[in-house]
Amino acid sequence: MNNRAGVLVMSYGTPESMDRIEAYYTHIRRGHPPSPEQLENLKKRYEAIVGGFFPLRENTDRQVAALEQTLNRMYPDTVWTCYQGLKHARPFIEDGVQQMIEDGIVEAAGLVLAPHYSAMSVGGYIKRAQEKAEQGGLRMHFAKNYHLHPDLIDALSERVSEALDKFSRTDRDSVKVLFTAHSLPEKILEMRDPYPAQLTETAEAVSKQTGLSNWQFAWQSAGQTDAKWLGPDVLEVLRTLHGDGVRNVLICPVGFVSDHLEILYDIDIECRALANELGIQLERTESLNTDPRFMKALAETVASLLQ
Ligand code: FEC
Question: Where is the chain membrane-spanning (predicted)?
Answer without folding.
Answer: none
